[in-house]
């Protein structure tokens, strides 16, 4: 995809986002129902906000639903982490930048419809799930896990 194509897509995303009011309330999930549609749509809006630079990547990562067991959402979280971590590489290599942006766009559009990600994308991020901070539970135990993760114990 050429730069002009990316700019057209990003402008369409911006126009879409301007027409909708952004709500960053985490949708409630029914404990009996494993339907992650509302959470995927919520995460899709986060990814769109990051791509259109309405929010920072860090804020986007903090807005992800905590304790979500959906592998698609976990893969999206890791894709956004890689997007943030590879900023210096993206500035030097335009093709790599385009690939990361296309991946995040694909995630956002799949999640906009509430669809899961393709299995190959989920599998590519699965090795990182062990240290997945979005899976930390709340309370004292979750706080201790977060603390040890950032202190690198």
Give the secondary structure arrangement, pairings included.
Layout (H helix, E strand, L loop, with lengths): L2 H17 L17 H15 L5 H7 L7 H15 L1 H6 L1 H19 L6 H7 L14 H12 L2
Helix pairs in contact: 1-2, 2-3, 2-4, 2-6, 3-4, 4-6, 4-7
Task: Provide structural commentary.
By secondary structure, the protein is mainly α. The chain has one domain. It has helices spanning 3-19, 37-51, 57-63, 71-85, 87-92, 94-112, 119-125, 140-151. It is globular, with a radius of gyration of 16 Å. 22% of the residues are buried. Residues 29-33 have low confidence and may be disordered.
Distance between the termini: 42 Å
Strands, count: 0
Structural class: mainly alpha
Unreliable parts: 29-33
Q: Could you give the order of the helices and strands?
A: HHHHHHHH
Largest sheet: none
Strand content: under 5%
CA-atom Rg in angstroms: 16 Å
Any idea how many domains? Answer: 1
**Morphology:** globular
* Helix content percent band: 55-70%
Mean pLDDT: 79
Helix segment tally: 8
